[in-house]
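Researcher: For the record, we're logging two predictions in this thread. I'll number them. Prediction 1 follows.
Model: Prediction 1, sequence and structure:
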Amino acid sequence: MAPVQQRLRTASSSVSLDFAGRALFTSRCEDFLESFVCVEDLADTSRARRTRIRGADHAPTADVDRGAMYGEPEDDDLAAEEQASSLRAFEKHYQSENTWEDLVEDESGMLRVTTGDKGYREKRRKIALAASNSHVCKGMIRFVYVVLDLSQAVNEEDMRPSRLAVISSLMYKFFREFFNQNPLSQLGLVVTRNGIAERVTELSGNPETHIAALKENLDAAGDMSIQNSLEQVHASLVQLPMYGSREVLFVVSALSTCDPGNVHTAIAAAKNAKIRVSVVSVAAEMHVCRRMTEETGGIFGVAQSQHHLEELLMAHAPPPPLNEESTKVCASSTAMIFFRVSSTFNFIN
């Protein structure tokens, strides 16, 4: 402490100030020395207290108590902070996930993910599905009828605010998405209620027409009828040319069907007319719907939630892969059209 005081007195004597200025400078130096002495006394007291604590208790918890008492970080915390500060940005992103724990080696020696982000697995599944369908022949022209179940089952409130509100909003979205994916295709709407089927709109290429017609026909009552619906769409689709795919999409909410005859006869007629029937069920699986899709080569799905229902519906917006027979028909029709155009062009020349 003495060298510090001596240096301050020397500095005050060497400064060229008047008497008042030198006195003020000297008083400021003394105040600084007093605060410095207080800080040193506090440091000595803290060191002595630590020494007493360490000597009084040699248990492993002494360091923990000392750190908690004086706010000092533990060695493990310091090591974790140093490790985190040394990581790069992309390493910090995966630091708390421990993604290596989700990798398991299978029988063939390949690594596969057992658990992890469900959204990431769903994204990978969609990419794989798109890659598998990239070399598949798909129809450019589609003739699709949407059969909407408006029985009393759509008034259930297992979806908020009700099934009818959710399904109607998703149908509006589906109509627009369908024509975005299929600009050359046509779509019609059929509703089934009170045991009958009613054709609301004919096949057309304007989504707003179907949306406006559906908004005016949202009255739900009675039971649905699969047989009457199939016969209604069969009478229209059977007259269309074969170069376009014939499809029917059922959106079903009921768990039963009220038919005047044998529904399997209508299914067989749809199969003979090359009509592809798919079903999206809101409530549960019906055996007749499952068999109808299997017989005609369609897709059957049961919605597990509102989000899943939207995924099932939007999966029918892109054109489906054509089967072998439909591919041959499309190829022959295309060749015939090309032959006629070439003959007409040669005749004009």
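Researcher: Logged. Prediction 2.
Model: Prediction 2, sequence and structure:
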Amino acid sequence: RKEIRSPRKAIMAVSETQACPASFTMNDGIEHPARGFGTYKVGFVPASATSAAPKDDRDPVEIIKDAVAVGYRYFDCAQFYGNEGIIGQALAQSGVDRKELYLVSKCWNDTIYAGADAIRAQVKQTLRDLQVEYIDLYLVHWPVPGKHIEAYQTLEQLREEGLLRSIGISNYTIEDYAELKPHIKVKPVVNQIEVNPFLYRKVTIDYFASEGILTEAYRVLRQGKSMQDEVVSSIAAAHKCTSGQILTQWCLQHSIIVIAKSSKRERMEENFKAMDFQLAAEEMEQLDALTTPEALSAYEELYKKCVVRDTPLAALQEGVKDKVTLN
């Protein structure tokens, strides 16, 4: 039987030999690729999307096929993204063997609110859309008040049935997990949240690591909004690389799985390129310090909105926690 190591120990073991680890060991003993390709707004923009940014203007099938050609095998998908059929079509056309792929998906709030039968039906729809017989990792997208515990328990059952290899959570605060923990048999392998130097919630990340739960990070590159930041730019210049590569390396050195996305082939190659350096402790501290109180307040507002988005709870903010750990 393969030894199951904690996320921190697994990362330290691999970081000693290479600056850019290929994978991390999850608490169920399965390896999780270190870097993945995000599929949000590839060919489709959800009606209730937080940002008004348009979908990519390139053929979405070609975007995914380019990502495969660059070397990506881990694709982050979701019911909410509305494009799993496109992703499945592109991956089928790519010719990559299923065993080489690592596919992640998530059930959306309306399905979580509807309950176990809706979740089961959605998982089966995702299997059809992605044209696969199992999903490597499936997550509860948001901890919908009064509903997320049943949702996770349903994922436990689907894992037992072999439709899901691993299961986890997304956008959970410490308080949300404390609510879930007493009611589950299978510990989540990951918590997928937004992480970058401008939203570095160290207390939360360290808490989940202490529970043996890895962090998957989305918006690592902040949609390009911070590439000209003085601190990031100066560190990038020192290492003769791009700002995006610095943001990626910062995550990896914090033992955090990276989800990056671009519709441009050259950017994909840049994001996927393995780094041959490690950031110095002083550089890590400089980047760690970029999170402001205003950023944490903005996160709190977004959390309270998104946790009930597209459910009947949204009108009155029913069940939304008054206080959660922000940092």
